[in-house]
Amino acid sequence: MLDTIISGAQVVTPAGAGSWDVGIVGEKIVAVALPGVLPTEGATIIDASGKIIVPGGIEPHAHAVANVQPGARQLVDGTPNAGPLEHSLGAIWGGTTTIIDFAPVPNEGDLAAGIHSFLAPWQGNAYTDYSTHCIYTSNNTPDAISRYKELIDAGFPSIKVFTTDIRPPEGRVHTLTPIGRIDTGRMGAVMEQVARHGGILAVHGEDDELVMYNYLLAKERGLWDWYNVHLIHSKLVEDLAFQKAIRLAQRTGAGMYFVHVTAKDGMDAISEARSDGLPVYGEVLTLALSFICDQYQEPDGMKYHTYPSLKYEEDRNHLWDGLMGGNLAFTATDSSFTTYVDKTAGRNVVDVRGGNIGIEIRMGVNYSEAVVKRGLSLERFADITSSNAAKLLGLYPRKGAIAAGSDADIAIIDPSFKKALSMDDLHVRDYSPWDGWEVEGWPTTVMLRGKVMVDQGKLLGQPTDGQLIPRKIDPMVLRRPAF
Q1: Which of 82, 148, 235, 417 has its CA 20 to 30 A from that of 444?
Q2: Are 164 and 211 a contacting pair, CB within 8 Å?
């Protein structure tokens, strides 16, 4: 006997899109069948006629738990950062059902226990399922790096590294937040471990020496206002770091992807590596697909910024080409947000605050911009918002698929939803760079493991519904470009 049947929709499955009924028992999808075939006795019927069913979104890049650690960056007193509760609330409203956060790897003791301890604020504060990338920095010992397999065994196969400290020394906040540069020696050692044990490396790629020199030049040349941040976190710093990381990956055999690709130069480096058969992938932020650095010039242009930085219209168009053509694997958010007054408090290139508040709009804006405006197929839409991240990060096919045996994580998109977004449509904080953005198509019903969490403007889920999900990566995605 089925618990739930969703009928009448266009369903996007791994085999393609078509008119199917979806049968659910408990937390799992058990059938994707021709309309009218599934037995209805005792089942709750969800009529999704005229709508589109896609896998629940996977947000592969969110800084949530670090925001609630002691000493987390805050520019204005009394403006608390958004933690797991707010991130997962925005995500579930927007059709995203799994979030990947970040946690630092300790040097001593049980490494997995240290990761679990850092993730403790997620417990009881998760409207979505969640996991974490583990971060190695130059503060980690060779011994901690050599023990990477402990993280694999605990279900945390993805590692994140930063090739820059992002800000000059006077602008760094030394807290428990897991951001810090890794040196080349340690990055090579991490890559060797990743290659040996079947993990994946995520790289924030910027050349640190050039970034720091650019800060010096900006100070000397009077380019210290926030709207010059793209001159410091420039196209060249991305290009140099990408080329170096790719060379190390080629030598070690590590699978890797670049987070928040921002420029044509970085995109070209990824394309070249993939053409050589290297398992190199790229992530792009919805922010970088939507806005350009010219918008920093607006009086509150800081609201558009997250690190590295927005670039130019040519770069934005090139990122779209990469996403549409396959050299960029999926979209992300780099979510980390507070209130409007805190986000806009930074007035120079050091104080300007990173992070953005795009976790709720990612699925809907991507549907409007990619499917409606640019003709992206529904199958490819599911790939860039869910399936590819699930495959690369070790969640597939439990997550990222409408298929028998997969978790019933489902976003039902209403293509008739058409309007200019306003803050009344959104559910976290008091601003959005997409306020006033014209959209067509939006997730209106969202399920997490078979439970209806959001339905037609009503929040039905609880912050205790989310779970920590262990991950294991399919070796196929680590041998060559698999998608």
Answers
A1: 82
A2: yes
